[in-house]
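Hey,
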Amino acid sequence: MNDHIIYIFAVAGFFQLVLIFILLYQGLIERKRNHQMTEMVRRLMHYRDIVILNGDANFTDENGNFDADQKLFKLFKEVDKRIMKEHLFADPNFGRDDLVRLFGTDKNNLPSVIQRFANTNVPGYINIKRMEYAIQLIKQHPEYTLGAIAEACGIKSAATFIRNFRNTYGMTPSEFRRYYEKDSNTPPGEN
């Protein structure tokens, strides 16, 4: 009977060790993935800043030909810059009607313009603008709480903000902050 109890404890101990090993391994994989995602976000935001500062030379189709809608693309870029510069998305009620007014287009045409140039739908586009601003705030103001960042981005709930951030970047804002602060002394692409 004593040997049977010892055997049960040995098997249980073995399974506990295996479980601990699996959890540690998952933690390492998660940290590596978050580090890679943080680096990717840093590179994308760096590229975005360069494009906003310098602009794109031309908008061409997949064959390298000038697109017939180059004027529409130029308007899209101007409106996009204005939305970011004036933080129009910070109004929680900012939506389709505001974009229609900014673009000066029909509300039925707006979704196709957003889909074509932002590769998402109207709510997705507004959310992207909010998440881009959230990244800026996390980088520039590490002392801000997630609730304050959510409010500054035009999102009423911190839980909604965290969910949207995770859906956009694959990690929570806290995880991004932790990895960004750890890697902030390294220029994008040099990790």
